[in-house]
Specification:
By secondary structure, the protein is an alpha/beta fold. It has twelve helices and twelve strands. The longest helix is centred in the middle third of the chain and has 19 residues, at 142-160. Keywords: Flavoprotein, FMN, Monooxygenase, Oxidoreductase.
């Protein structure tokens, strides 16, 4: 981990098609393919990034782009990238309704074993009914989904506990009888949860290591960060926070703004509405986001301007209490190189990231 005074850097990876914008403008069509993801991972590692974080999707959002409709499954994706890299930490994202926790305990321990404990898990309770209905699954109401996710994480932690006692668990969703899963990770994998609803935050504060969130503005972040951290502290725990900003910079602020307007002008309105309607019905977590904001960045916070301006905004994000940013980019390979040459040196001079 980086020091507590440093901002951790990660990449919100393009393992799904049409990331990060719900638009036909500026999209690199083949970014989702594994060879591209591996090059991006190795580039991020060479620049000193700390994390790679994937999206998990089972069905796209229709429209002209079918946003996120083609995707790489994230446990197998992580296995390959963990072998290709040496230092960077890599998460998998799993939907709780689709996996038994004993299966994920085994998969996770395997990934931790082959990577010397560089693997982490992002648990998603599920929100897109259009995804799950094709599998014949009906999602529980919001509060019940997080009750199930709590049971899921409790089982994982019990199976991964190095004390090694057999696990017994009874809930509405799982029955574990003298459960054992070997090997166990040498260190407890980091567990993240995305969601800013009260149910999500309560579960995260009690059981998770990371709160992966999104705010509609930098000004909104302190309230979100303070809320989850104070909940965790009241239970004698610490939870770190991460957001996924969309970085768009050029020679001038006007050039960056013009590029953003081009993305919005070419938005896939049908896919954006399906995305926004689905997540609003599922959790209400993005009530402050407009359709244009969703189309521009897929729910990430846009950071616009010159390289200096983007660096200043990243400093403000860190000063708000955010511990890590998982950046999204228009052309990941091109823009990661640009970030390393143009933005990262400024952040280092500012003392925002480690030198």
């Amino acid at each position: 981990m980086t020091g507590k005074n440093s901002l951790s850097l990660g990449v919100f990876m393009p393992n799904c098609s049409n990331m990060p914008s719900i638009s036909t403008h500026g999209v690199v069509a083949d970014q989702w393919q594994y060879p591209n993801n591996e090059r991006i991972a190795l580039l991020a590692e060479s620049l000193g990034f700390d994390y790679l974080f994937p999206v998990s999707r089972w069905r796209g959002f229709g429209g002209e782009t079918n946003y996120l409709g083609t995707s790489l499954e994230t446990t197998t994706w992580a296995a390959a990238l963990l072998r290709a890299t040496e230092r960077i930490k890599i998460f998998s994202t799993v939907h709780v309704p689709l996996f038994h926790p004993m299966v994920i305990a085994k998969i996770g321990a395997t990934l931790a074993h082959i990577s010397h404990d560089r693997w982490g898990l992002n648990v998603v309770s599920g929100w897109s009914q259009r995804e799950f209905e094709m599998m014949g699954l009906e999602l529980d109401d919001h509060g019940r989904r997080y009750e199930r996710t709590s049971a899921f994480v409790e089982i994982l932690r019990g199976l991964w506990n190095t004390a090694g006692e057999p696990l017994n668990h009874r809930s509405d969703w799982y029955s574990i009888n003298n459960g054992v899963s070997l090997p166990r990770p040498d260190k407890m994998p980091e567990i993240a949860n995305a969601g800013i609803s009260p149910d999500a935050q309560a579960m995260t504060a009690r059981l998770c290591d990371w709160s992966f969130m999104s705010g509609a503005s930098i000004e909104a972040l302190p309230r979100l960060v303070d809320g989850i951290k104070s909940q965790a502290q009241s239970q004698g725990r610490q939870v770190r926070t991460a957001i996924f900003p969309f970085l768009l910079w050029g020679d001038s602020e006007a050039a960056a703004q013009e590029e953003l307007q081009q993305i919005i002008a070419h938005k896939d309105g049908e896919a954006a509405r399906n995305w926004l309607d689905g997540i609003s019905a599922g959790s209400g977590s993005f009530d402050e986001f407009t359709e244009n904001m969703i189309a521009a960045s897929g729910g990430g916070l846009p950071l616009l301007g010159t390289a200096e301006m983007v660096a200043e905004q990243l400093r403000a994000i860190h000063e708000s209490g955010v511990d890590a940013v998982m950046v999204t980019l228009q052309d990941y390979e091109r823009d990661l190189r640009r970030f390393g040459a143009e933005v990262l040196p400024i952040l280092r001079r500012m003392g925002v990231v480690r030198a």
